[in-house]
Design goal:
This protein is of the alpha/beta class and 173 residues long. The protein has helices at 13-47, 60-77, 117-122, 127-141, 145-167, and strands spanning 51-52, 80-85, 99-104, 112-114.
Amino acid sequence: MKRFFFAPRGGSPWERLLRGALLGAVFALVIVAYRKDIDAVIEKAQATGVVADPGQALSREDRAMILELAQEMRGRFGLELRVRVGGEPPVDVAAGPKTALFYVDPACRASRVVLAPLAASALPAGFAEDLGREHLDANCRQGRLREGVLAALGLFVDSLDAAAGRGKGEQRQ
C-alpha cells in the first residue's frame, strides 16, 4: 500500500493516530500564533498617528496610556483621539466627524483642541478653547508640557463621562 508523504509514520494505528493528532495540533498552534501576530500588527497600524511626539516630550508610559485611552474612547464614545506634541500644526483644522484632535504648539501660544461636532455640542461652550489655552498652553509655558497634555486629556474624558451621564438621565452631584 502506498503511503502519502505527509502521513504520519508509526508501528500501530494508534501511534499513527496520535502522531497525526499532534501534527494537527502543531498546525493549529502555528495558525493561532500567526493570527495573533497579524492582529497585533493591525492594532499597531490603527494606533499609528494617535500620538505624534517628535520632540519626545512624553514618556513611553505616557504614550502607552494615551493609546489605551484612545482605544477606550473609540469603544465607549466612537471617537478617534489624535495627540500632536510639537511638529507642524495640522493642515486641516477640522477634526473630522469622529475625531478629537489635541495639538500642542511648541511655542506655547497656539495650542488647540478641535473636537468632533457631536462631542463639542455635548460639552460646555468654549470648552475646547479652554483646554487649549488654559491647560495645554499654560502648562507648556510653565515647563510642564507633559502634565498639561495628560490633564487636558483627563478633563476631556471626565467631561465626556459627565455629558454621557446627563444624556442617560443620571444626576451628577
